[in-house]
């Protein structure tokens, strides 16, 4: 016997509030992508500012010909990325649990506030010495990661609980697609800021002026603006009707909250007979999190969500680091190119990649996910990603290492397309649909945190595999071949896990995906 309120949520027509919720919920994902993809061009600026040697010259003299520019070491870049990912994992666990214990709305604004303040703090990284700047930047990026991590389970859970069952997948995919806009925004902001600073600079075109130390800070701080603009609307969001009804056991308040945001007649959500206020009033799991009964009922689902998210993040974040090995083929890091121009070129490269592959992948998923299902899209994505990495990796030593061409770039772009039209999106969606309302945010946070552990492993592992040889300045082709083939194998493992263990949730109510005992049917 299903509550009329829950049935009304499942059958609700698409309304303006659904699109408003996509924007509000998607700002955390937007900030996540902005923060991740603005780091490569920023590291180019930091390299020109803080990794600079003057050989055989007096400190007071200006001798451009004897100035040797260096780039930020890959170890430093991967460390800064890993620190933010560690913070994200912590945030997913902490805020995921708080979302189930205190309510989604109560902690939703806190995670966004942490993102805004930490983004601003990254720009105010103290000192002007290299070590001090990098340490303080790493600290604030960890805090930023905590806020971003908290937004993952809360945004996914809130959107899934507001959506109807027919278009729930598309709404969740649209929230996740805000990452694509974040990637594009980071590139546009970087290019605009670098162009403005370059035009206003009086230094020679080959020099990187002192003002560049301000430019990268401005780029980081700009990431806080879109998130801050949505803070008011996030705080005005009511608690989700599903949480209020199923967890707080307050059906009357759930109906009132639902009426505030969705145009649904009260006759469709009011119960025909009064509900007594003694437990169990509504379907409500009586077993604790991670108990034997929980693991027996939901253990396989939790393992599958966490494992597939782990595997795709190993691959996805390794692919992002692979970009650093591509830049030097198309973007010459010479001493006659100043930091602004170098960062501009890197940002432009990322924008082209985002427009041609990343963003289309997100929106193709939005269109197809409720038509062909989560499982098929996830399997398709893993399969084609594996084929791409084998096509890049197996001949890498003999062909691609010396000939990164249009063919290589086409294959590399496909890896991002099928990651987003595939497991990178579906692993965000499925955990928000499989678990009972009482555990939904927590389980999403656990799966996401395990995924970020995979991201850290991918970041560190690919750094080890792609270290440049001392003489050539290029990565060792044998290590790169092995690394790329391993990524292909990881994708095949994800394909097998999806096929054998992942349950399809397309077109089903969130309550249909929960497994209850007979005594959990509510009293009337």
From TrEMBL:
CC per GO annotation: membrane
This entry's Gene Ontology molecular function terms read:
symporter activity
Query: Which controlled-vocabulary keywords does the entry list?
Result: Membrane, Phosphate transport, Symport, Transmembrane, Transmembrane helix, Transport
Question: Which residues does the UniProt record annotate as the domain Major facilitator superfamily (MFS) profile?
Answer: 21-506
Q: Which sequence ranges are marked TM in the entry?
A: 21-43, 75-95, 107-126, 138-159, 171-198, 214-233, 300-319, 349-368, 380-398, 404-422, 443-466, 478-501
Against Pfam families, the record matches this protein to:
Sugar_tr
Task: List the GO biological process terms.
Answer: phosphate ion transport
Look up keyword Transmembrane helix and say if it applies: yes
- InterPro entries linked to this entry: MFS_dom (IPR020846), MFS_sugar_transport-like (IPR005828), MFS_trans_sf (IPR036259), Sugar_transporter_CS (IPR005829)
* Membrane topology, from the record: Multi-pass membrane protein
Tell me which stretches of the chain form a coiled coil: none
Where does this chain mainly localize? membrane
Which compartments is it annotated to reside in?
Membrane
Q: What family is reported?
A: Belongs to the major facilitator superfamily. Phosphate:H(+) symporter (TC 2.A.1.9) family.
- Name it: Probable inorganic phosphate transporter 1-9
Q: Which organism does this sequence originate in?
A: Gossypium hirsutum
Task: Give me the gene this protein comes from.
Answer: LOC107910754
């Amino acid at each position: 016997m299903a509550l009329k309120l829950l049935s009304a949520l499942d059958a609700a027509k698409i309304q303006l509030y659904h699109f408003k919720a996509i924007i509000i919920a998607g700002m955390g994902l937007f900030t996540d992508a902005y923060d991740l993809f603005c780091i490569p061009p920023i590291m180019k600026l930091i390299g020109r500012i803080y990794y600079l040697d003057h050989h055989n010259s007096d400190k007071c003299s200006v001798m451009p010909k004897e100035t040797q520019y260096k780039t930020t070491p890959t170890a430093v870049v991967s460390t800064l990325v890993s620190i933010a990912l560690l913070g994200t994992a912590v945030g997913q666990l902490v805020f995921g649990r708080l979302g189930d214990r205190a309510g989604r709305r109560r902690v939703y604004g806190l995670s966004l506030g942490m993102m805004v303040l930490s983004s601003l703090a990254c720009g105010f990284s103290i000192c002007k010495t290299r070590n001090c700047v990098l340490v303080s930047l790493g600290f604030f990026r960890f805090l930023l990661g905590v806020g971003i991590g908290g937004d993952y389970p809360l945004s996914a859970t809130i959107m899934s609980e507001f959506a109807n069952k027919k278009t729930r997948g598309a709404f969740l995919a649209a929230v996740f697609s805000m990452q694509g806009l974040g990637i594009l925004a980071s590139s546009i902001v970087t290019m605009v800021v670098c162009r403005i600073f370059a035009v206003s600079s009086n230094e020679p075109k080959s020099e990187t002026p002192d003002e560049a130390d301000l430019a990268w800070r401005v780029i980081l701080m700009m990431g806080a603006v879109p998130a801050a603009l949505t803070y008011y609307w996030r705080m005005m969001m009511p608690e989700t009707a599903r949480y209020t009804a199923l967890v707080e056991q307050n059906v009357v308040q759930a109906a009132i909250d639902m009426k505030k945001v969705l145009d649904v007649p009260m006759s469709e959500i009011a119960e025909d007979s009064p509900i007594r206020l003694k437990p169990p009033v509504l379907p409500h799991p009586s077993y604790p999190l991670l108990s034997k009964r929980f693991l027996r009922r939901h253990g396989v689902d939790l393992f599958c969500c966490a494992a597939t998210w782990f595997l795709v993040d190993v691959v996805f974040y390794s692919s992002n680091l692979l970009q650093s090995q591509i830049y030097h083929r198309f973007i010459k890091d010479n001493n006659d190119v100043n930091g602004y121009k170098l960062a501009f070129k890197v940002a432009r490269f990322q924008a082209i990649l985002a427009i041609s592959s990343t963003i289309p992948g997100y929106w193709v998923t939005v269109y197809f996910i409720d038509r062909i299902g989560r499982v098929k899209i996830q399997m398709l994505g893993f399969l084609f990603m594996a084929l791409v990495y084998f096509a890049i990796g197996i001949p890498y030593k003999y062909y691609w290492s010396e000939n990164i061409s249009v063919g290589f770039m086409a294959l590399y772009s496909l890896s991002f397309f099928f990651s987003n039209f595939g497991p990178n999106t579906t692993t965000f969606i499925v955990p928000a649909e499989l678990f009972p309302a009482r555990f939904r945010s927590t389980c999403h946070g656990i799966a996401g945190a395990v995924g970020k552990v995979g991201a850290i492993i991918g970041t560190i592992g690919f750094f080890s595999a792609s270290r440049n040889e001392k003489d050539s300045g290029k990565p060792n082709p044998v290590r790169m071949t092995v690394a790329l083939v391993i990524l292909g194998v990881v994708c095949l493992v994800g394909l097998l896990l999806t096929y054998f263990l992942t349950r399809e949730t397309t077109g089903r109510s969130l309550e249909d995906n929960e497994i209850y005992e007979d005594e959990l049917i509510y009293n009337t």
